[in-house]
């Protein structure tokens, strides 16, 4: 616990922003949030609920499934079974939700009924599945290793796509007897889906649509001050974590999440500032109470290796596999440079959504990716100057700004054909 707090303070201290000199007047800030609330006000008793408790509270049925990957990770997948699947009728179409880095499956539902994309699709009769990728809360088990061991954390987003996403798709198709599934990814969840489709092209036939909310492939245009500071200090950070802290990744723990939540409860302006530093100035779309619900399931599930991998891609402006150095690359890939992820191999239909104030998925980067994708069915830049990386899952106004359009595209591929 002590160590982890230290780690977070260390991370914060890397930020060029001085968190202790932040000046926004809290009252004004809250009034501003109030004005923008379009939907249900956050119920503060949602803070700290896990996904099963949350869905039960809001009267959704929920099942917890376990999927074991080829490389031994045991993952939790949460399912809201389709209300259309009664009377032994044919299986309703299934959607697999893939969360981003730092996020967890519950983030797909906590904006509540009438706003959360996963709940909107459940209401329409879809069979909803939400995967927690390796290393995140509820997915920290392995057939051989435990999460204190270095071997457990020897993965990047490559493995989350290549193994976790593949195993979960196969599991869903087996349980439902469906032939295809729709994927909805946010942030790193989009990388997972692209990496799978590019490196195991046979999976394109098992996917009828990939919805990408804020796609992360090319990252040369990242402007997040927090991320850039991390990248700049990447090597030092790696040495510090590995040699001094003996940490190779950040596992989730309840007590740490509670610490983060209590910190944000009493220092909401610092929390908001950190979110701004990480993913984009965000005063119009985020409800401060909701922020507490959001952070109460954080932080965890990040491996040092994937941070290094992102750092490499930001520097090299590529979308490619982990760089082990020339010799290591020869051993792993048989080439001195790591192989690129070939976007041309992603032949499944793809719908792309991006924002104007996204510090991580820059407009140019997304358009570069989009130009390389062979089968686009929709591409849309959200019409709000403030819309940032987290707003894709956290904005109070996300339904009218984006989800209604996304629902139309999902229905087009699943129901209206
Ligand atoms: C859930 O269902 C119960 C029983 O029908 C009802 O009393 C309660 O208000 C519902 N809760 C929500 C959040 O809709
Ligand atoms: C299932 O069967 C019941 C009774 O026959 C019927 O009332 C209900 O509408 C059916 N549900 C679906 C989804 O077909
Ligand atoms: C679920 O059933 C309803 C009523 O039959 C239908 O309108 C809807 O399209 C179905 N949902 C899906 C996702 O197939
Ligand atoms: C994890 O495994 C290592 C090596 O077997 C062992 O020393 C350690 O106690 C284990 N940790 C936990 C939390 O089980």
Question: Can you characterise this structure?
Answer:
- The chain is an alpha/beta fold and 417 residues long.
- Strands 1, 2, 3, 4, 5, 6, 7, 10 and 11 form a 9-stranded mixed sheet that branches. It has a two-stranded antiparallel sheet with strand order 8-9.
- Helix 5 crosses helix 6 and helix 9 crosses helix 10.
- The relative contact order is 0.15.
- About 6% of the residues have low confidence.
- The site of one 2-acetamido-2-deoxy-beta-D-glucopyranose has 7 residues, from loops.
- The site of one 2-acetamido-2-deoxy-beta-D-glucopyranose (NAG) has 4 residues, from loops.
Q: Please state the overall shape, judged from the principal axes of the Cα atoms.
A: globular
Strand-pairing-aware structural class:
alpha/beta
Strands, total number: 11
**Ions and ligands:** 2-acetamido-2-deoxy-beta-D-glucopyranose
Count of helices? 16
What pattern of helices and strands is seen along the backbone? HHHEEEHEEHEHEHHEHHHEHHEHEHH
The rounded Rg comes to 20 Å
Q: Report the biggest beta sheet as strand number plus sense, adding barrel if it closes.
A: 9 strands, mixed
Give the overall pLDDT as a whole number.
89
Instruction: Give the N-terminus to C-terminus distance in angstroms.
Output: 52 Å
Number of domains: 1
Query: Which second-level CATH architecture applies?
Result: 3-Layer(aba) Sandwich
| CATH level 3 topology | Rossmann fold
Strand content bin: 5-15%
Which spans of ≥5 residues are poorly predicted at pLDDT below 50?
A: 13-39
CATH classification class? Alpha Beta
Name of the CATH superfamily: Alpha/Beta hydrolase fold, catalytic domain
Helix content: 40-55%
Transmembrane segments: 209-231
Domain Partial AB-hydrolase lipase: 51-110
GO molecular function: hydrolase activity
Organism: Hypothenemus hampei
């Amino acid at each position: 616990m002590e160590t982890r707090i230290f780690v977070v303070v260390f991370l914060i201290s890397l930020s060029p922003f001085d968190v202790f000199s932040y000046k926004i007047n809290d009252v004004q800030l809250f009034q501003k949030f109030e004005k923008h609330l379009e939907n249900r006000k956050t119920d503060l008793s949602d803070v700290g609920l896990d996904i099963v408790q949350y869905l039960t509270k809001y009267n959704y049925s929920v099942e917890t499934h376990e999927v074991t990957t080829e490389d031994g990770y045991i993952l939790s997948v949460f399912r809201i079974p389709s209300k259309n699947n009664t009377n032994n009728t044919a299986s309703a179409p299934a959607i697999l939700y893939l969360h981003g880095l730092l996020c967890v499956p519950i983030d797909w539902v906590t904006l509540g009924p009438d706003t959360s994309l996963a709940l909107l699709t459940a209401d329409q009769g879809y069979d909803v599945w939400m995967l927690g990728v390796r290393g995140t809360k509820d997915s920290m088990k392995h057939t051989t290793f435990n999460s204190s061991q270095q071997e457990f954390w020897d993965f990047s987003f490559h493995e989350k796509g290549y193994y976790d996403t593949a195993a979960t798709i196969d599991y869903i198709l087996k349980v439902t007897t469906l032939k295809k599934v729709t994927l909805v990814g946010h942030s790193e969840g989009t990388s997972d889906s692209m990496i799978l489709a590019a490196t195991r092209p046979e999976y394109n036939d098992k996917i009828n649509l990939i919805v990408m909310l804020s796609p992360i492939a090319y990252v040369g245009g990242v402007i997040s001050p927090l991320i850039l500071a991390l990248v700049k200090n990447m090597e030092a950070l790696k040495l510090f974590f590995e040699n001094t802290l003996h940490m190779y990744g950040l596992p989730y723990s309840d007590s740490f999440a509670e610490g983060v939540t209590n910190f944000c409860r009493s220092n909401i302006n610092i929390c908001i500032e950190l979110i701004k530093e990480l993913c984009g100035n965000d005063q119009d779309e985020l409800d401060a109470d909701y922020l507490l619900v959001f952070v109460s399931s954080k932080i965890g599930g990040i491996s040092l290796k994937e941070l290094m991998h992102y750092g490499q891609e930001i520097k090299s402006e590529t979308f490619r596999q982990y760089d082990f150095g020339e010799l290591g690359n020869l051993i792993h890939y048989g080439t001195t440079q790591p192989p690129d992820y070939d976007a041309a191999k992603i032949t499944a239909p793809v719908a792309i959504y991006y924002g104007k104030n996204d510090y991580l998925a820059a407009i140019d980067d997304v358009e570069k990716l989009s130009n390389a994708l062979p089968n686009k069915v929709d591409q849309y830049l959200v019409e709000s100057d403030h819309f940032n990386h987290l707003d894709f899952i956290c904005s109070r106004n996300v339904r009218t700004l984006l989800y209604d359009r996304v629902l139309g595209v999902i229905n087009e591929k699943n129901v209206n054909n």
